[in-house]
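User: Quick sanity check before I run a bigger batch. Here is a single chain. Can you write out its predicted 3D structure?
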Amino acid sequence: MSQKAEQYQKLIDELRHQGIEIVESDSNPDTKWGAYLRIAETSYSRFLECYWKGISVPSQDDVPGHQLSPKLLLIAPGMRLSLQYHNRRAEYWRVVGEPVRVIIGTNEKDLHEQVCQRGDVIHLSVGQWHRLIGMDSWGIVAEIWDSVDKEHPSDELDIVRISDDFGRK
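Assistant: Done. Predicted structure follows.
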């Protein structure tokens, strides 16, 4: 079993043990940067208890009927996700595993990099450029969306990629 498959299975087992339902997953071996697990909206409260306890993030009461798309991202050592931004959502990230690097800025000249440790929270504003990078070990980040237009909530198409190591547009 590959390291990725082991880390991925460990994450699935952890979520199941916590009573959190997974509704979508991507562990495709061709996805070099890692994998993700999207959590059922019905498990959102439990997801908050396990990964966001004591931290102010959007709740289902704030946006009734609106998807917050809770996820766990598994980032491979040394791999970089796209440098990207979103037009219809802000994002909240919380490092729940090994340290990761995060690049944040508003344009190419404004980018700065920081190392984020377990427990660190990163708030990404709408339009803010960002990139997540794995370090020496597999990183795990809990993610929540906060759509700014409740009539036209964000979705997976709301990604503007500035740069991508894997040729994605």
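The longest helix spans residues 3-17.

User: Great, the batch can go ahead then.
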